[in-house]
Design a protein that fits this description.
By secondary structure, the chain is mostly beta strands. It has one domain. 12% of the residues lie in helices and 44% in strands. The chain contains 3 helices and 14 strands. The strands form 2 sheets. Strands 1, 2, 4, 5, 6, 7, 8, 9, 10, 11, 13 and 14 form a 12-stranded mixed β-sheet that branches. It has a two-stranded antiparallel sheet with strand order 3-12. The model is unreliable at 1-18 (pLDDT under 50).
Length: 219
């Protein structure tokens, strides 16, 4: 089953939204729990692990409050109180990594993008950093190959192979994407990790069925 980069629509409204934003681009995420899995495996991880994630947005074109952010990217590194995918019972923390090529105005726009897309997971931002950010989507057969590097955060994905990656035979996308307005396809995180110091904790994983790859559109 080929993976096509899908679009989702999010309406930005309310007193904090000065002007409507129209932005589109690629989206990737990886977390420290399986998302393409069976209920038995997911239940075994609940509230024991899976509390960390890296989310990335690469803008193809668009503006926020008349600020063009074409070609720029922003990444949110998440440390949550509960397994990601469950309703959070406590606060989460986020570190934002903004494309070092962004101007001050563009940086503010990218921070706003990450906060609005991340919702409660990006409500408590403990640090905003600038770094080189690269999100490259590959042309592999099933469309699930991508690589994200952003400062101390990294994701590399590959396509799911149903015969090879099945364990219990009852796998599905057990948890939806962390960004609710984004439609994306699950993938295997060949590598996923964060080595920064802001959380006083780091992680590095390989070959976990815990990634999503797709696209986003804000209108």
């Amino acid at each position: 089953m080929a993976l096509w980069l899908l679009s989702a629509a999010l309406v930005l409204s309310g007193p904090a939204d000065v002007k409507a934003a129209t932005v589109s681009g690629a989206y990737i995420e990886a977390r420290t729990c399986d998302i393409w899995t069976g209920p038995c495996f997911a239940n075994a991880e609940m509230n024991l692990g899976g509390k960390h994630a890296v989310l990335g947005w690469k803008v193809d074109k668009g503006t926020i409050d008349d600020v063009r952010i074409d070609g720029l990217a922003v990444v949110a590194v998440i440390s949550a109180s509960d397994t990601l995918g469950l309703d959070q019972t406590g606060p989460s923390k986020a570190v934002l990594i903004v494309d070092e090529k962004a101007t001050k105005a563009q940086k503010d726009a990218l921070v706003r993008l990450a906060k609005q897309q991340g919702g409660d997971l990006t409500k408590n931002v403990i640090a905003v950093e600038s770094a080189a950010v690269d999100l490259a989507v590959g042309n592999c057969k099933e469309g699930g190959c991508a690589r994200l590097t952003a400062g101390d955060a990294r994701i590399e994905t590959r396509c799911l192979e149903e015969k090879h990656d099945k364990v219990c035979g009852n796998e599905s996308a057990f948890y939806p994407p962390l960004v609710k307005s984004v439609k994306a396809m699950p993938a295997v995180a060949v590598e996923h990790g964060y080595a920064g110091k802001d959380f006083k904790e780091t992680w590095k994983e390989s070959n976990r069925r815990g990634a999503y790859l797709g696209s986003f559109t804000l209108r």
